[in-house]
Write a structure and sequence with these properties.
The protein is mainly beta. It contains no helices and 18 strands.
Length: about 250
Amino acid sequence: MSYYANSGAEDAHGYNENFYIGGISSNALNDNDGPQIKLYMNDENFIFGSITNAAPNVYAILFDSSGINTVGNGIGHDITAQIDGKPQQLFVLNDYYESDLDSYQKGKVLFPLNTLSEGLHSVVFKAWDINNNSSESTTEFVVSSSAGLALDHVLNYPNPFTTYTQFMFEHNRPCTGMAIQVHIYTVSGKLVKTIDAYQVCEGFRNVAISWDGKDDFGDQLAKGVYVYRLIIRTAEGESAQKTEKLVLLR
């Protein structure tokens, strides 16, 4: 191996023959496990089967005690993402890997996809460590057209509940401010509680909205089944709503 350096005023050169190419190390790590992969779409609030916009980001967090192979050493040892199982939709993502500060073991990949058709899609993400071990992670997502405000996966958790529950939902307008209302009714149709909130969601899932099981007057509601209607509205006047049931226990 020959060396050359230049300081701007002087030249330097040298060589070294004291290294091996190939061979076996007696101190090699006994590592047979591939990288740990946490796979999302857009952000860490994503869950399997959630909705996204038409051009989402593949977002993966990687960890391996031996280090992540980010240069594709070895045939087929690249970091890849394949969309919908299509060969023409196999993307090499080595250049999109970003290591955490001062770490060779952990990092993330954020890769923007082109405009996708509405409906169900899948991603298979694959990565390797430097000991030739690989791992795969798969997720699915539903592209919802940005032409209209969409609301999905409306739920409250826990359900049934005793002292509190939280309302959650997904939408297709990330980084959009929206007014949120939750109307809670008895099964006979009487409105007993209205919850108002305003949020700007960075991703496609809201910040959970808590409720303590009390009515608009601060009185504890009786146990039983209730119906709630969740409504979201944007500043442009668009709105979407869904109705679900919850059970209050005492």
